[in-house]
Amino acid sequence: MRYSGFKVIKEALTGHKGWKPAWRDPEPQTHYDIVIIGGGGHGLATAYYLAKEFKQKRIAVLEKGWIGGGNVGRNTTIIRSNYLLDGNQPFYEFSLKLWEGLEQDFNYNAMISQRGILNLIHSDAQRDAFIRRGNAMILNGADAELLSTEQIKARYPFLNTKDARFPIKGGLAQHRGGTVRHDAVAWGYARGADSHGVDIIQNCEVTGFRIENGTCSGVETSRGFIGASKIGCAVAGSSSRLMSHANMRLPMESQVLQAFVTEGLKPVLPGVVTFGAGHFYVSQSDKGGLVFGGDLDGYNSYAQRGNLPVVEDVCEGGMAIFPALGRARLLRMWGGIMDMSMDGSPIIDRTHIDGLYFNGGWCYGGFKATPASGFCFAHLLARDAPHPTATAFRFDRFEKGLMIDEKGVGNQPNLH
């Protein structure tokens, strides 16, 4: 069933009796060509592109909970491609281009809003660093513009540009950045994958891998054994626990990242703003709530809740640049689990076990990377070769000294 304005009008006039479930609820088969573990944004996008772009058949997505209930619904919904290093920037720019055509591609309203993102500058040294980053973005085909304090005051008059500790001396803007409704991304990819024949199996937890003579032939699940010729793992913050079933120890750690939403307000914030002297970022949702977040909680955990010192730190960062934020009442907060890799960059690669593939270590970049992560992982699974924009995301880069040391701010090593 294709969604359209005409369909909405027809259903409104006929009592909304023609809507069908967005995806099927199939029973798992005994064997698939490809099984994707993880029904979040990355796993569903992988299945979608495997079926649509790479014409693969007999695909299943296994999700231990429900679609949209994991990390894809636990983030601050920001999309951007303002990275510095060659190993990352082309990949995230590829992702942003996929975002720009995504709603038409999978025929679902994901509420993509390219309202722009602004990284504030608070010192002369930071201006030099942001000029370098902006040039790297432009050289890789992205957009970037250095704004003066006066230009920022005209667009964001409520920002405290004359703070004694953190004066705003300019900003690096990417006008194509913005926000997306996060759970709609999962629903859109699920619906799109299902329409291409992918089986989406919810409440199906993987409890082990069947590995013999160095080859993985399937997974043990809470709904029985499911065989597969290829198995792709994309489970975000649960990567270490999942891969331990294959006796793999990953070069990453799991940490909590909190997010916060205020009560609904009238339109006040036209874009995404990030604090350059600390770790604070804020946007306004389409429902009016200010959505903001900050730094990691600073210790390893699988608990989806945060601690109060980070709440205090985030509020301090927000108040330094946006004093009016203190008048808003907090509506809710949550914690998502991040796979923090040792160089702040992800891994999309084959493992040393035949038939077993891995996608994880996304640090802060998981949500914005969703389309490209899915496309590149699908490329790897279908062709057994990395996508041109993801050739650096290898397991062995740590062994070979080829780290992509983008700022990841994990606990170790040395906060990147």
> How is the main sheet built?
8 strands, mixed
The portion of residues assigned to helices is 25-40%
Report the radius of gyration as a whole number of Å: 21 Å
Distance between the termini: 47 Å
Number of strands: 18
**Global structural class:** alpha/beta
Instruction: Classify the beta-strand content into a percent band.
Output: 25-35%
Helix count from the secondary structure assignment: 11
Calculate the mean pLDDT score and round it: 93
Low-confidence stretches: none
Overall 3D form = globular
> What's the order of the H and E elements?
HEHEEHHEHEHEEHEEEEHEEEEHEEEHH
Oligomer: single chain
Summarize this structure as a short list of keywords or feature phrases.
8-stranded mixed β-sheet; 416 residues; 18 strands; single chain; alpha/beta
Walkthrough of the structure:
The chain has helices spanning 5-13, 41-52, 89-100, 102-106, 124-139, 149-155, 182-195, 239-244, 308-321, 370-383, 397-400, and strands at residues 31-37, 59-62, 78-79, 117-121, 145-147, 170-174, 178-179, 199-201, 206-212, 215-221, 224-233, 252-264, 272-275, 280-284, 289-300, 330-341, 347-350, 356-360. With 416 residues, the protein is α/β, with parallel strands linked by helices. The strands form three sheets. Strands 1, 2, 8, 9, 10, 11, 17 and 18 form an eight-stranded mixed sheet that branches. An eight-stranded mixed sheet has the order 5-6-4-13-14-15-12-16. Strands 3-7 form a two-stranded antiparallel sheet. Helix 2 links the parallel strand 1 (31-37) and strand 2. Helix 2 (41-52) packs across helix 10. The relative contact order is 0.18.
